[in-house]
Structures are given as C-alpha cells and as structure tokens.
Specification:
75% helix
C-alpha cells in the first residue's frame, strides 16, 4: 500500500493567515525574532571583547580563553537571547514560507552593520555600505513579492 500525499492546493490554508492582520502578525513575530537575534549578537560581541581573542600560538591558551568565556555572564545572556529568538523563529516558520522568512532575516545584517559602526565604533568601508544597500534592496523585493502572493 503506497502513501498518497495530497497536492498543496488540496490542503486547506487558514484564511486568517492571508489577511492583512495575519501578515502583520507574522511580520511582527519575524521582527521580534530578528531583534532577539541582534541582541544576542551584540551580547556575544561584548562578552568576547571582554574575554579576548580565542586562539594563538599555544593550544593551552585557547583552552584558558574558552574557560574565561564560559564564566562571562554576557556570553550566557547572548546565548539566552538566541534561544528566545529561536522560539519566535519556530512560530514564524509555522506561518510564513521559508523562502520569504529567511531572506527577511537579512534585516539583521543591515542593523548589525549600523550598530557596529555607530555603537561599537567599528570601521565600515564604502564597499560594505554598498553590500548593505544590495541586501536592503533584496529584502524590499522579497517583501513586495510576499505581499503580492498573499492577496
């Protein structure tokens, strides 16, 4: 006996997900997930700035650095924030096609570059700004396609 899988059009889709309110809720959840992820990245960077560089000439030095990192509260806060982000991400994946949701995560790349430049005072060369513009354009195109596919 073979297992028959119905075609996608035979599977009922809740209409509330296709409504404007459903799309807004999905977008909100996606942005919450991205926000927690960005917070996690910033906390992990703060932890590692405090701990120092991992690796070097001696393997024992890397082990010592990792042991110090394990004692750094910012590291654990960052990992916790990533965990919260993952929970929201699962909710998003239950509501939005991956081909739409994942590219919108690119918002985090844009915000991380901006925060790196203006909060952490990291240098951002002109070519990286061009990359940010390309990512932003791609996210806008995907957003437009998401809106059109749900109407």
């Amino acid at each position: 006996m073979a297992l028959e899988v119905p075609p996608p059009q035979a599977i009922p889709v809740p209409t509330s997900e296709h409504s404007g309110a459903g799309r807004l809720v999905s977008l909100f959840l996606l942005l919450v997930s991205v926000s927690f992820s960005i917070g996690g990245q910033l906390m992990l960077k703060a932890a590692m700035d405090r701990v120092g560089r991992i690796g070097g000439a001696e393997i024992a030095a890397a082990g010592d650095t990792l042991a110090r990192a394990a004692k750094e509260p910012r590291l654990w806060i960052g990992l916790f924030l990533f965990g919260i982000s993952a929970i929201f991400w699962l909710v998003v994946l239950s509501r939005v096609p991956l081909s739409v949701a994942y590219p919108i995560v690119g918002i985090s790349y844009i915000l991380i570059v901006l925060l790196g430049r203006f909060v952490l005072d990291e240098p951002v060369p002109a070519l990286r700004w061009v990359g940010v513009l390309v990512v932003a354009t791609g996210i806008a195109i995907i957003g437009i396609s998401f809106r059109r596919s749900m109407t």
